[in-house]
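Let us work through a complete example step by step.
Step 1: write down the sequence.
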Amino acid sequence: MKFPELVAANLTDVGIEFCRPSQWKPIADRAPSLIDGYVSPDHSAGMIVVSVNSKLLDAARPSTALIRRVLATTLARFTGSLPRGLRHAGDTS
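Step 2: predict the structure and record it as tokens.
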């Protein structure tokens, strides 16, 4: 299996560093500190980070229901920027 050339990338607003294929570009409708990431030219793959400020949650751990609402709203708002076929596959916080 041949892997693509990887390059360093970072999302400094949320403190994440990672490697990505060199062809991936920043998502079109990025909103640093809220949603950011990279997507392949054909939108078949990507890496997206969604961040929710703890002040909005009164510094409490978010409920599963809140996480699902945030993800659903984000997916609806950024549909054109995200990889095709993206689906909710699990909750994390």
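Step 3: interpret the result. The first strand starts at residue 6 and ends at 11.
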